Amino acid sequence: MTRAIKIVIITPVTMDLTFYKPQIDRLCRAGVEVTEISLIVGPASIESRVDEAMAVPGMLAAALQAEKAGAHALVISCMSDPGLSALREAVAIPVVGVAQVSMATAATLAHSFGIVTVLSRIAPILQANAAHCGYERQYVGCRAVEIPVLDVHRRAREVQDGLNRLALELVEQEGAGAVILGCGALLGCAGEIRGFLAERGMAVPVVDPLPTTVAFAVTLVEQGLSHSSVSYPPCQIKSYQGYELGEDQMGSRRF
C-alpha cells in the first residue's frame, strides 16, 4: 500500500483554530493527509513585522517536530511568509509559503493582481513581499476591510461583503487581472468573490492561498522536489539561550 502524503500547515499564531477544521479537512483527499498546527509560543495573530518576528522561534520548533513526526512537506499559512527561509535551513522536507505560491499563481493567470486583506496597516508588508518575490510590476495594490484578524470569524458576513466590494474596486479601479486573499483568516472566501465578479461580467481568478499552496506542496512531494541546499544551506541546530527548539513548551498544538 502506498503511504499517504502528509502535509502539515503551520499557522504561526496561538489563537484557537478549531473553527477552521472543517475547511482544513476538505483539503484532504485520497492519499493525502492535511493537518493544521498552531503555536504554543508566539503572537495571537500576525498584523505587523513585530508579530512576524515573535512567531519565528515557535515556528522553528514546530517545523522540527513535524519533520521528526514524519511530515512530507510544510506549508506556512500567513501572507507575509514569516520564517520561510529560516525553516528551509532547519529542515530537509519542502517548506512553502502561501504568499510566494499564491502570487506566482496569480501572476501566471493574469498580467496583474491585487490583494484583499484585513487591515491596511499590513499593506507595506504585502508590497515588500510582492517585490521580494519578483512581482513588484504585476502587483497593483491592496484593499482592506479594516477588521482585525481576531474578529474575522465573528464578523464573517461583514467581512465577505467587504471583500466582494474591495475585489471589484481592485479590478475596476486598479486594473487587477487576478485577486488574492491576503490573510489566512479569509480561508474559504474566494468562491463568493469569484461569483460576485462573474455576475458583473468579470471572469477573474480569485486565489485562495492555503488550498493553492497545499496542492503545490503535494506536487513537490510527488515529484521528489525540495528547496535547494545551495540556496538554503542546512543549519546545525545549536543551543539557543531561552529557546528550547526541540522541547514541547516551544512546539505546536494540533487541531
From TrEMBL:
InterPro entries according to UniProt: Asp/Glu/hydantoin_racemase (IPR015942), Hydantoin_racemase-like (IPR052186), Iso_Racemase_Enz_sf (IPR053714)
Q: Which family does it belong to?
A: Belongs to the HyuE racemase family.
Pfam families for this protein: Asp_Glu_race (PF01177)
User: What is the protein name for this chain?
Assistant: Hydantoin racemase
**Record-linked PANTHER family:** PROTEIN DCG1 (PTHR28047:SF5)
Q: Which organism is it from?
A: Aspergillus japonicus CBS 114.51
Where on the tree of life does the source sit, at the highest rank? Eukaryota
Q: In the record, which residues are listed under signal peptide?
A: none
Q: Which GO terms describe its molecular function?
A: amino-acid racemase activity
